[in-house]
Amino acid sequence: MSAQPPPHRAVAFAPASVGNVAIGFDILGFAVGTLGDQVTAIRRPGRGVDITDVRGIACELARDPRQNTAGQALLALVEAVRPDFGISIEIDKGIPLGSGLGGSAASAVAAVVAGNALLDQSCERADLLKFALAGEQVASGSRHMDNIAPSLYGGLVLTVGIDNPRVKQIPVPPGVRAVVVHPHMFLATSQARAILKGSVAMSDFVWQTANLAGFISGCYTDDLDMIRASLEDVVIEPQRQALIPGFLDARAGAMAAGALGCSISGAGPSMFAWASVASAAGVEAAMRGAFAAQSLRCDTWIVDVNSPGARVIG
Ligand code: HSE
């Protein structure tokens, strides 16, 4: 039996993600499978990449592939692989722009996964990660993996290195859920990065390092007390929290409702908490209430932290 030739058209879905996870600035993130972006890639004559449609909840994105996260990611793939055909893409946005839920990363990841499905010889996932990184850079102006890696691989993902990244999927204790809350406001990642100081006090460095180590070891050993003790960002969150109206009340409400930890999702304004299955609904209600008190409507999700990563769906 001969292998099937690659299709002329492929649709890929890539999930949203929570970057940083409080203690792993730019290096740790988890997938949020309940929402995501979709990219349809279609073979066409000629060479290169073009964007023929952008649909969904954010359709004002640039159509120039070099200015678009999905387009730039796919260009990186095409420039490396040099297929003997061109690729047109259609983007369906399911993740709000400026939400802190990894929308630009998801578009980039979905584009490379869909484009890869058209190739005669598919790329390794580690290569797709590098191509997607080129796309992510268009949106945020910096190279960080904490959204693209979980969106591509699924689950809770740590990356070490940029040019030759090592990716590690971290086990999450059973019975832990993530509460994700998106208040309806826009916050540009570039703005949230621009306010960050260029240096960290030695005491904060020690504290944050301990927290990251404690959190990772707590995940590997199913130690919820260790996770509760360490899921706290003492470096980035204090600088960014003023950008999110109601942040302190939302976090306090989540912790009072039994959360293991609560912080900003990526660059914000979305927030996340980790909680046991039993306390997740109460945590969600407390966070929603804090934003309502600021007259901010929000969408909320309670998700398994082990959401699958990007995949071809059609
Ligand atoms: N790690 C990034 C940040 C995520 O916090 O700026 C945003 O894309």
Folded structure, characterized:
This protein is an alpha+beta fold and 314 residues long. The protein has 2 domains: 9-169 and 307-312, Ribosomal Protein S5, domain 2 (2-Layer Sandwich), CATH 3.30.230.10; 172-304, Alpha-Beta Plaits (2-Layer Sandwich). 36% of the residues lie in helices and 26% in strands. It has helices at 69-81, 103-117, 125-140, 148-153, 189-194, 202-220, 224-230, 237-240, 247-256, 277-292; strands at 9-19, 28-44, 49-56, 86-93, 156-160, 166-170, 176-183, 261-264, 271-276, 298-304, 311-312. The strands form 2 sheets. Strands 1, 2, 3, 4, 5, 6 and 11 form a 7-stranded mixed beta sheet that branches. Helix 2 runs antiparallel to helix 3 and helix 6 (202-220) packs antiparallel against helix 7 (224-230). The longest helix has 19 residues, at 202-220. The radius of gyration is 19 Å and the shape is globular. The two termini are 23 Å apart. Bound molecules: L-homoserine.
Task: Describe the structure concisely.
By secondary structure, the protein is of the alpha+beta class.
Descriptive labels:
single chain, 314 residues, Ribosomal Protein S5, domain 2, Alpha-Beta Plaits, seven-stranded mixed β-sheet, binds L-homoserine
Describe the secondary structure blueprint for this structure:
Blueprint: E1 9-19, E2 28-44, E3 49-56, H1 69-81, E4 86-93, H2 103-117, H3 125-140, H4 148-153, E5 156-160, E6 166-170, E7 176-183, H5 189-194, H6 202-220, H7 224-230, H8 237-240, H9 247-256, E8 261-264, E9 271-276, H10 277-292, E10 298-304, E11 311-312
Parallel strand pairs: 3-4
Antiparallel strand pairs: 1-2, 1-11, 2-4, 2-5, 5-6, 7-9, 7-10, 8-9
